[in-house]
Amino acid sequence: MKRAFIGLLSIALVFGQNAKQKAAPKAAPPAEDQSRITVDVTRVNLLYTVTDKKGRFVSDLTRDDFEIIENKKPQQILEFTAETDLPLRIAILVDTSNSIRDRFHFIQEAALDFINTVMRPGKDKALVVSFDTSPELVADLTDDSVAITKAIRDLRPGGGTALYDAIFYACRDKLMKDQPRDKFRRAIVVLSDGDDNQSRYTRQQALEMAHKADAVIYTISTNITHLETSGDKVLKHFAEETGGIAFFPFKSEDMAQSFENIANELRHQYNVFYRPNPLRTDGLYHPVDIRVKDRKDFYVRARHGYYAPTLPLAPPVPIKN
Predict the structure, then answer these.
(1) Maximal C-alpha separation, the chain
(2) Cβ atoms of residues 95 and 162 within 8 Å
(3) Do the bridges between strand 246-247 and strand 36-37 make them parallel or antiparallel, or are there none, so unpaired?
């Protein structure tokens, strides 16, 4: 009797376990699968500016005037447009560390002038990220210039400098999520001394994320010593690698002029798409060179390459609440 009872109990337990297995919902996909950056490696997008020797914009060129070289091989341009009216998506990154305290009010006023000058209601959007020991989103992507103005005016300096984290966050968590990517012009305006001392991410990781977001970086240095610092070199590097410009204003008038130059630049750009040949999905950075045929007196400013495949996202940047 005892053996029969144990046998029945064993059968019941096995049956119960099988029933649970059948009734249990399917496990959700791993978080990593849901948080991958998708990069279309079948088409590369290049947004660029052409100027002459005197720095004047050249805006009357056609597709046939350009050539693209990747891995020493000419590439075929699939689409070409002279972009003068694309909606803007602008991330304004404001250094609020102690190192820029002396020029902080100055920076605020210039940033406000820029927003009021460049943003078109109902078409362009901007976000504001402040950064000291960590990035802080103080105004999410919006076309409300009043909200952006308030966010900038409410900023107060203090703490270290996490510049790389701020660029990484603005690109990955904000600019890359506004789709479709080819319908907007993405730009980052950085106001900082460039002396990062708090970031979890490296300069290269921040630059890689800017490439993946198709974001052009414009930097405005707060250094007024007239001597190039290591931070100035960092700001130059971000601008040059993404097709932007680094500005080094020394007085309020220069700061305002820097913002005006950025606004003009955003309205005088070309855009091309091409399909890499041969197509590589190796996870590496691929240098690209775009030139104006037979015109050595024209200067093309564009990002220097792209990252081909998709990669898992890195851990999130800590953001202040």
Answers:
(1) 103
(2) no
(3) unpaired
Q: Does residue 9 have a pLDDT over 50?
A: no
Q: What angle do CA 45, 75, 311 make, to 5 degrees?
A: 45
d(Cα 43, Cα 78) in Å, to the nearest integer? 9
- CA 197 – CA 238 distance, rounded (Å): 17
23 pLDDT above the threshold of 70: no
Shortest CA distance to 176 belongs to which of 16, 35, 55? 35
Q: Inform me whether the pLDDT recorded for 46 exceeds 60.
A: yes
The whole-number pLDDT of residue 223 equals 86
Residue 15, exposed/middle/buried by CB under 10 A (0-12, 13-18, 19+)? exposed
**Stretch 241-269: mean pLDDT, rounded?**
85
DSSP string of 132-186? SSSEEEEEEEES-HHHHHHHHHT----S---HHHHHHHIIIIIGGGSS-GGGSEE
Give Cα 36 distance to the centre of its chain.
16
- Nearest CA-CA partner of 214 in 177, 251, 249: 177
Q: What are the distances in angstroms from CA 192 to CA 103, 162, 180, 305? A: 10, 10, 30, 25
The reported pLDDT for the residue numbered 33 is 37
The sign of the dihedral angle between the CA atoms of 197, 201, 202, 203 is: negative
* The pLDDT value given to residue 283: 80
Mean pLDDT of 276-291: 89
The mean pLDDT value of the chain amounts to 82
% of residues, the chain, pLDDT over 90: 51
Secondary structure of residue 285 in the 3-state scheme: strand
CB atoms within 10 A of CB 97: 25
91 touches 129 (CB < 8 A)? yes
Q: 48-57, 82-91, 285-294: which range is least confident on average?
A: 82-91
